[in-house]
Structures are given as C-alpha cells and as structure tokens.
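ARCHIVE CARD
CATEGORY: sequence design from structure
SOURCE FIELD: tokenized fold
FIELD CONTENT:
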C-alpha cells in the first residue's frame, strides 16, 4: 500500500512517542480568497530551529467566530473564554448543528459569512476538502499527530493531507446487564455459550442483540480478521475488501451468532432492542453512546459497558466517527483560527468536553487519564475506540451502504454463503463507483 506523507509522519512519531472564518467577518466580501495554507511568519535572521518550528501568533486585531452544536455549546463557550484570556482574541460562538456545517460552509464560506472554525464528523471531510473550503493543518501537524490516536489522525486526513484537529471519537461497545451477567463475555464464543442457557425465542428473550443487517455494527466481523471497506486506509476505491479472505474468516463468527439471536434481521430495530434490554429480556446490546443516558436511567448500577467481544482471539475492530475542528479556508485570521482549533483540542480541552457531555477523547494522554479510566461507562467506549477504524471519507463510501446492507440479511435470514453475498455486493459497489465517476 502506498504510504502517504501524513501516515509516514504518524509512523515516525509512533516510534518516537510510543503511541499504542472568516473571522467574525461581519462585512461580507463577495470576492473572499482562501487563506494561505501555511500561515506562520518567519522573521528575517531566524535560526534554523525557529525556521523549522515557527511559532504561530494571532494576527493583530483578530476576532473569531466558531460554529458549535447546541448540545456541546457549554464546552465551546468555556474554550472561547479561556482562549481570549490567553491570546486576547475575542471568540463568538454560534449554534449550528454539526451535520449541517459543511453545507452551510459551502454556502457561506466564499461570501465571507461563515465561521472561522467549524466542527463536524469526519465522514463529511471529503466533500469539504474537495470543495476547497478548509485549510490544511500544517503549522501544528506534528503536535496534532503526536498527541492523538492514529485512528483519529486517519479520520481527519484526506488525500494524504491533514486537515482536522481531533477532539472526540464515537464508536459502539457492548452494553450488558450486570444482574444477568456478572462480567462481560471476553469473546463471541463466550457469548454463544451463555446464550445457549439464556436465549428463549418463545419468551422473546435473547442473550445478545445488535442490528445484524447493518454494516456499521457488523464491521467487526469484516475487519477483525483483516478485511476492510476500501484499501490504503480507506482511500482506494478500486480496492474493496469486504469479500477478502480476512473478512470471510470473521463472517464465520457472524453466522454462528444466529444461534444466540434466532430472529429475522428486519425484526430487530433500535426501539425493539432498547425495550427488551431495559426490561431485562436482552442481556447484551451492541450500540453507541447515544443510548447511554436512557440505559443508565433504566438499569442504574446494573448497567455495564465493555469492549466488543473478541473474534478468533483478536480484539474486535469497530467503525468510529471522529469529531474535529477545521479551519475555514476563507478566514481573515488563519493564524488565530489555527491556534483556537489546537487550543480547543488539547488534553485539557478534551477532558473538559468529556466532563460536560461524556465524550470519548482522541488525545492519548486524556484516554490514559484517571478521569477516563475511572468512569465505568466512558472507559468501556474508550477501550473500544483504541481498536476502532474511522469510516472512510471518500465520496464512494456512499455507494457501500445499500449493497452491503442487502448482503447481510441474505446471509443472516436466508443462509446465503457469505462469499457469494459479499462478491455480489462488491460488484454492485464497483458498478456504482463507475457510474459515479463517469
């Protein structure tokens, strides 16, 4: 596989560190030009060390606007206050939902109406980067890569260029009822053995539930044995690995789990799963942090969260989403904007975000902190994040969901051979990719 420059830098720093908007621009300009991608100023007579590591300073008179979701605004309000105290740069926070920010940036960026710093899930990165809406993260790249997990760096990288400043990761994990299970099963083989004595279809009672027709939750059965969606860290649309030898090995475990959950995939919805788990009729549920508040309320101290069980002795690899800051390429204050993005994604910032909304850090030191390790709920997700892979950011990812989400029910419901089902899905994806690029 081709090693791009960001991944090469990740590899180098792994050995060294042992890693296991337009700024408050209230006067719109219809002719706004993107800011230069390298923004540190090198003074005449600077030493070689200073040239290699120029210190970023905010522009004189800089003011910033940041877009933030309503749910996480309290965190960014605090970051804005601290940033102004440190750098003397006023920061205005505006509420824009994370999933809406790229669309709004597309509309408002070139006209000078958008925020200087935006925040969105990494699967929107390809669209924003291809449209030229973002500055690359160059001046602070070494710090960003050294301080964060490799998976989060991969998530905020597109076409070999680092764009983002990771601040949180999201993946799914194993929720379990401690009244039924004293400890979480270590392997899916253990899940199957437990379910032999607990699952009773006539009583609508099951050892485990997840959405067996959904690639997102089934990715561990693809990736843990060596399969993948796209090759070259999710960037090569010509290399599709859902039908690779490694994927087919993991899918053997997927097929065996039908004994623990003997119902049709379409009969398992989030609402059904939630109701059964809350009532104690499902012992384990593979789902994400969005269920945490409701499950804590229903089960209280009986709720446990652990990493996904191992597959063939290997830690299960889940799909993850990376939330990150990005700098608007049309900002009038690129230095100040980059400084804020870095300032609001440090170890301390990520721990504050966790404190306020329960997020999972991407910062290595934050993940290893007592604050995270001592949280019985977040720690389970944090352990799983370490064994996660970010969703591919290339536009062709949109062509994957429908074919693969049709293949899994064929295997689960109808007993179709996994290789045959996945071979068909791969051909459908290739056909869609070909049509998309004509």
């Amino acid at each position: 596989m081709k090693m791009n420059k960001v991944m090469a830098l990740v590899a180098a720093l792994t050995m060294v560190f042992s890693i296991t908007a337009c700024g408050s621009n209230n006067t719109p300009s219809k002719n706004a030009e993107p800011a230069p991608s390298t923004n540190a100023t090198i003074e005449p007579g600077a030493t070689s060390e200073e040239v290699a590591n120029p210190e970023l300073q905010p522009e004189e008179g800089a003011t910033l606007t940041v877009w933030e979701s309503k749910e996480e605004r309290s965190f960014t309000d605090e970051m804005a206050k601290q940033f102004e105290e440190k750098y003397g740069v006023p920061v205005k926070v505006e509420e824009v939902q994370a999933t809406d920010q790229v669309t709004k940036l597309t509309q408002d960026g070139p006209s000078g109406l958008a925020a200087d710093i935006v925040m969105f899930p990494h699967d929107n990165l390809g669209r924003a980067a291809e449209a030229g809406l973002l500055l690359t993260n160059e001046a602070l790249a070494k710090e960003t890569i050294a301080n964060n997990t490799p998976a989060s760096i991969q998530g905020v990288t597109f076409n070999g260029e680092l764009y983002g400043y990771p601040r949180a990761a999201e993946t799914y994990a194993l929720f379990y009822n401690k009244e039924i299970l004293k400890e979480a099963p270590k392997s899916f083989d253990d899940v199957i053995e437990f379910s032999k004595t607990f699952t009773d279809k006539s009583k609508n009672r099951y050892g485990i539930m997840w959405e067996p027709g959904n690639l997102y939750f089934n990715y561990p059965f693809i990736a843990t044995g060596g399969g993948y969606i796209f090759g070259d860290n999710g960037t090569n649309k010509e290399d599709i690995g859902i039908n690779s030898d490694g994927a087919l090995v993991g899918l053997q475990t997927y097929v065996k789990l039908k004994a623990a959950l003997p119902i049709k995939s379409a009969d398992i919805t989030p609402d059904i799963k939630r109701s059964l788990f809350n009532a104690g009729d499902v012992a384990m549920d593979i789902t994400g942090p969005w269920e945490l508040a409701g499950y804590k309320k229903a089960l209280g101290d009986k709720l446990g969260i652990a990493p996904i069980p191992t597959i063939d002795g290997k830690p299960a690899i889940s799909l993850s989403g990376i939330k990150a800051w990005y700098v608007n390429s049309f900002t009038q204050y690129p230095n100040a904007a980059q400084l804020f993005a870095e300032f609001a994604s440090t170890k301390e910032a990520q721990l504050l975000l966790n404190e306020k909304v329960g997020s999972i850090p991407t910062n290595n030191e934050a993940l290893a902190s007592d604050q995270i390790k001592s949280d019985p709920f977040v720690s389970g997700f944090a352990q799983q994040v370490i064994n996660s892979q970010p969703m591919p950011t290339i536009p062709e990812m949109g062509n994957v969901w429908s074919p693969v989400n049709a293949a899994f029910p064929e295997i689960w419901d109808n007993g179709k051979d996994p290789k045959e089902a996945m071979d068909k899905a791969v051909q459908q994806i290739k056909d869609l990719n070909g049509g998309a690029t004509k």
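CARD ANNOTATION: The first strand starts at residue 64 and ends at 68. The longest helix spans residues 418-436.
SHELF: design records, drawer C
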